[in-house]
Amino acid sequence: SAGDLTDKTRVVLNDAALMEYETERDASKFFTMDAGVPQVYTLDSEATEYAINERPVAEGIVTVGFTAPAEGVYTLSAPRMDTPMLLRDNATGVIHDFAEGSYEFASGAGTFDDRFTVMMKAGETAIDEQRAVGNESPVYNIKGQRVNEATEQGVYIKGDRKVVKM
């Protein structure tokens, strides 16, 4: 969205669905004729643009494209999630957890088919080992903030190790 101008796309996880376009499950993106409205859609490996993309979880990654009508600040949100989702902004390297709210970003005008990736699998953080975290300092949370101790479940950085408190 950009202010009151909003567009929507939908991803449905269904293990009975195929990764390819299925007329009974998927819907192609039809772009508005109003050039001032930002547009959002998902893409498959064939660059098909979807308004509704019903698919199996597969690798847990969905490419999200968008069209910005003008340079400005835009917002992506996921108001209804049945599966926890992370958004990777491929232009900035930021990984945003939609459980924390909407993601606001700046963009120039244009169409960007590879700007964002939605990740749905828990393993997409590249954490390759789990260790118990004690109450020793310094410990940093996943946002890079120093915390006195790992008090909640989650991912922490201690020295050069990634650790998980369960």
Describe the structure.
Helix content is about 0%, strand content about 40%. Mean pLDDT is about 85; it is low at about 125-135. The protein has strands spanning about 10-15, 25-30, 40-45, 50-55, 60-70, 70-75, 85-90, 95, 105, 110-120, 140, 145, 155-160, 160-165. It contains no helices and 14 strands. It is an all-beta fold and about 170 residues long.
Helix percent reads under 10%
Compute the number of strand runs. 14
In whole angstroms, the N-to-C terminal distance is 36 Å
Structural class by SSE content: mainly beta
- Helix count, DSSP H or I runs of 4 or more residues: 0
Q: Spell out the helices and strands N to C.
A: EEEEEEEEEEEEEE
Task: State which percent range the strand residues make up.
Answer: 35-45%
Low-confidence parts lasting 5 or more residues at pLDDT below 50? Answer: 123-135
Largest sheet: 8 strands, mixed
Q: Any idea what the shape is?
A: globular
Gyration radius, in Å: 18 Å
Average pLDDT score: 83
Descriptive labels:
mainly beta; 166 residues; single chain
Give the arrangement of secondary structure elements.
Blueprint: E1 10-13, E2 27-28, E3 39-43, E4 49-55, E5 61-68, E6 72-76, E7 86-89, E8 95-97, E9 103-107, E10 110-119, E11 139-141, E12 146-147, E13 154-158, E14 161-165
Parallel strand pairs: 1-4
Antiparallel strand pairs: 2-4, 3-4, 3-5, 5-10, 6-9, 7-8, 7-10, 11-12, 11-13, 13-14
Summarize the structure.
It contains no helices and 14 strands. It has strands at residues 10-13, 27-28, 39-43, 49-55, 61-68, 72-76, 86-89, 95-97, 103-107, 110-119, 139-141, 146-147, 154-158, 161-165.
